[in-house]
Known about the structure:
The chain is elongated, with a radius of gyration of 19 Å. The mean pLDDT is 93. The protein is an alpha+beta fold. It has 2 domains: 1-44 and 88-123, Rossmann fold; 46-86, no CATH class. A hairpin with a 4-residue loop joins β3 and β4 (115-121). It has a 4-stranded mixed sheet. It has 4 helices and 4 strands, in the order βαβαααββ. Helices cover 41% and strands 25% of the residues. α2 (49-71) packs antiparallel against α3.
Amino acid sequence: MQDDLVDAVTIAFGIRNVAQRDEVLRDCFRVLKPGGRIQIMEPGFLAVPVLGRAYRWYFDHVMPVVGNVLSGTDYAYTYLSETVYAFPSDEGFVRSLQRAGFVDAGVTFVTYGIARIYEGRKPPAKPATGRAPR
Length: 134
């Protein structure tokens, strides 16, 4: 795919499953037009202390069992739990966006942190200096 092609890149509930995450983020940066935006949504944990502990208990003990039964698998929701725990911290993933070249990188909590939206922007193109090369 060519450079500077798209205005936006969005990924929902998928980047945590990518082994070469930094490489994918660099590729997303490459295909974005200057000023383009990236938004990535991933599951997380409640950011409210007491409710957060209760949610983690549900996430660890109830959701995998019920989810696997309802989905007819013995691994899908167990895998979900494993990948959410293995995903970098909010600060760590924001740093990954910054290493890929994104500016204004940050995270927004959705539903008190059960989901997170990580965002960044490719800097605008630098204006030409108007000078001929020597």
